[in-house]
Amino acid sequence: MSAAPLIRLNDIHKSLGGKEILRGISLDVARGEVLCVIGPSGSGKSTLIRCINFLEIPDRGTIEFDGCVVRPDQPLDAHRARVGMVFQRFNLFPHLSVLDNITLAPTRVLGLESGRATKRARELLDRVGLSDREASWPGELSGGQQQRVAIARALAMEPQAMLFDEVTSALDPELVGEVLAVMKGLAREGMTMLVVTHQMKFAKEVGHRVVFLEGGRVAEEGRPAEILEAPKTERLREFLGHFA
């Protein structure tokens, strides 16, 4: 894990519907780091991750990627190609096969030749354990399988970092493990990851650092053992009590 940050957030503010959601968040994410973001509903976790990918434009503050400030008034396709994102809901195109879901963006956005994109997609399907489902429609897959396809689709753009927004929250409990296994594999390979999660065991075992958001601010941050086993504030102790 490199000490130089790949992602740097400087005093990020964001309001939605007249309500201030993010209230001055500053964070660094080092290359190869797995940063887990936890916190109660409404604390700003999803808004934060959407700002990093500029699905939401910050009202104030700057976001740097690989040492350069990302300007929202410039084309953002290149930035989004370098920062893959996987959502709570799978967002697969229901009218496209699994294979076509994965090859669509690399061919249209990156201009990748069809044969090369298909080869890459098949490698990724094998990586997520779904090499036998390339011709399936999304509706024929379980939720866990759809989420693994969504991860493969994001990886097909060959991103430098991956953002995960509560990717197991919509899954039945027995399907959670197969998705987390893919994410653990990415962590072992050194992928930079920012993970919004309620999976405390994952955060403890895989995360290099945990950030606790409360009211749109960073309330606590540190190594997983520090945050999850020895919280400094009563609010974090109360939050973690729900997972005991």
Explain what the structure shows.
- Strands 6-7-8-3-9-10 form a 6-stranded mixed sheet, sandwiched between helices. Strands 2-1-4-5 form a 4-stranded antiparallel sheet, with helices on one face.
- The model has no long low-confidence stretch (mean pLDDT 94).
- It has 9 helices and 10 strands.
- The protein starts with a strand and ends with a helix.
- By secondary structure, it is of the alpha/beta class.
Short description:
This protein is of the alpha/beta class. It contains 9 helices and 10 strands. Helix content is 36%, strand content 26%.
Write the layout of secondary structure elements.
Layout: E1 5-16, E2 19-30, E3 34-38, H1 45-52, E4 60-65, E5 68-69, H2 77-82, E6 83-86, H3 98-108, H4 114-127, H5 143-155, E7 161-165, H6 173-188, E8 192-196, H7 200-206, E9 209-214, E10 217-222, H8 224-229, H9 234-241
Parallel strand pairs: 3-8, 3-9, 6-7, 7-8
Antiparallel strand pairs: 1-2, 1-4, 4-5, 9-10
Characteristics:
single chain, 244 residues, alpha/beta, four-stranded antiparallel β-sheet, 36% helix
Q: How many β strands by DSSP?
A: 10
Number of helices: 9
Strand content: 25-35%
**Quaternary class:** single chain
The radius of gyration over CA amounts to 18 Å
Shape descriptor reads globular
Q: How many strands, what sense, and barrel or not for the largest sheet?
A: 6 strands, mixed
Mean pLDDT: 94
Q: State the distance separating the first and last CA atoms.
A: 31 Å
Helix and strand string, N-terminal first? EEEHEEHEHHHEHEHEEHH
